[in-house]
Predict the structure.
Amino acid sequence: MACALGSLIAQPAWAEGGSRLDKIRQTGKIDIGFPDASPPFAFLDGNAKPVGYTLEICEHVARKLKDDLGLKALEVRYTAVMSATRIPLIGNGTIDLECGTATNLPERHKLVSFAPTTFVTQVVLVARKDSAVDVNDLSSFKGKSISAQAGGQTQRVVVRESAQDKLDIQVVPAKDTAEAFLLLETGRVAGSANDDALAHATVAGAKQPKDFKIGTKGLEFAPYGILEPKDDPAFKAAVDKAVVELIRDGTVAGLYRKYFEQPIPPKGINLELPMSDVLKRALANPTDSGDEAAYR
């Protein structure tokens, strides 16, 4: 009985429904999930080091949590995730934050929470220039195939629009952005659906960038936010506070310039994408809302 009682007392607080803050305080570690092939948001540089716009925001958040918790040091551990695995890994405690390209959708709030929005994009189509399809008109892909990340918003949007307009489009799932584009590049699909910044980054890094065309008319609006565990108000409050501070002090704007307007590793590609007006408004009035109206 004494051994059993001791075992119960020794159980960490977060195992009994406590906050992730308890875990971080007691272990001195924070686990960050990231997609390793989604430049400029999260990817591996030439030395296989995790880098990227969203990832670096999370690293700044980790430093602020370290200071808030009074820790002398905080080890940041990285776990590569995919669209289909990021939410389950947040839910089961494998990762504490997911720092990549998660779209803040109202239905996802049933499973996870989101930090204040740090990027706003739109879903666009990509195709080869020598093809007859119109990347600004989904109906031109009727009866054809389009690749998209499995479990991501892009897959959901194309499936929904195809069913709604009876386009009979076959959506070919890919594990990540790189694989979705490879399917297009090798001629196995007629097009690829992706968020515009990821589409520009992928095409810019292709062997023959001039062979591809990117749509300018979006299929759907998409705010990005760092994924947080659901039903952990103390942890969410601490992370949200850190993100808002990073927005207010100009750190997020500086990271935007670093990853969207300057050459990035490993190939030195410059996306040359100035900050959009909708993102400027989102940063001026931080929100964790998944409602499109919040960004107008």
